[in-house]
Amino acid sequence: MNSVLVLGGGPDSEREVSLKSAHFIAQALRDSGRFANVHNQTIDRLTSDELRKLPGDVIFPALHGGWGEGGPLQDLLEADGRPFVGSMSRAARHAMDKIATKFTARSLGIPTPEVRILDVRDGVCPLPFPVIIKPVHEGSTVGLFVCKTPQDWSWSCAMIAEQRSVAGVERVYMVEPCIQRPGGKKARELTVGVIDGQPLPVIEITPATELYGYEEKYTRNDTAYVVAPALPPGVTQRIQAHTAELAKAMGIRHLARADFMLDADNDGPSASTCTAWFLEINTLPGFTDHSLVPMAARHIGLPMPDLCGKLIDLALRDHRRS
Fold it and tell me: In the prediction, which pLDDT does 263 show?
């Protein structure tokens, strides 16, 4: 049996979520009874030498955010030479860039909302309200603003300018339209996980608040999740196929989760012409007790210990192939 090194923490804004994911992954691997030792290691940034000294035959990184998920850690893992779960550095960088991912989706014919780069000096929203402002290279709705009016826009831009100056970090932000259903109702939020190229059941997310934000994802218990929801004809199959196709085109391996917004109900005139709009794809989605890939996997009879063990198997398989 191999020993496994689970990495959690990191320097990114999603550090606390990463620590939770690492905890649940390590526990699941222990519960599987398949591995000689499971080492759960908390890190910040680490060097190649520091990584090399850590124990484990296989590495399961459970980091979220630009450094841990967006390429830098993957560069270190590739240089280390041990098998590891998740995408290689090139695919990780691609997926962390929401605009580059949108270009790939469009090239495949996958509908995705139009986008503009934010410049707070412009003073005028480049798209009709309502719009979303969010960082190009972050996840978990970190730094996200919903703007319904010019006043919202001005306040959000002022906040972004202040955060940039305080943090000393020049984040790049993007603007895209809020997808809505007829009558101005909020669009339906859908997500699709993929394991080794095979799509998992669709999950519909209905937060108790207007926005499915950080707290709704990780700390609150009033968000409703429906696995394999009733959707207009063809929508389930279409977004499952889009997720698998996009992951393959981007070179994403082992696992991913893509998010969509649906602009229609199940009935009414819009149902037959509805569009599921692709938003983004994540190469290391969460593995907490609130997370969606484990939830969808359980629905098809793949509990957390089996899911995590399968991902280790995939890492070993691809390492042998390479």
Answer: 96
User: Domain 116-177, CATH 3.30.1490 — does that match?
Assistant: yes
Checking if the pLDDT of 301 tops 90, the result is yes
Tell me the helices (H) and strands (E) count for the chain, helix number first: 11, 15
pLDDT tops 50 at residue 213: no
| Cβ proximity of 298 and 202 under 8 Å | no
Which among 257, 109, 89, 275 is positioned nearest to 182, based on CA atoms? 275
Q: Report whether CATH 3.30.470.20 matches the domain 95-111+184-299.
A: yes
Q: Indicate the domain borders of the chain.
A: 4-86, 95-111+184-299, 116-177
Does pLDDT of 255 surpass 80? Answer: yes
Q: Which of 268, 269, 248 is nearest to 258 (CA)?
A: 248
pTM greater than 0.90: yes
Among 134, 142, 211, 128, CA closest to 175:
134
Check whether domain 4-86 has CATH 3.20.19.10, yes or no: no
Residues present in the chain in total: 322
User: How would residue 220 be classed by pLDDT, with cut points 50, 70 and 90?
Assistant: low
71's torsion region: left (phi>0), alpha (psi -120 to 50) or beta? left
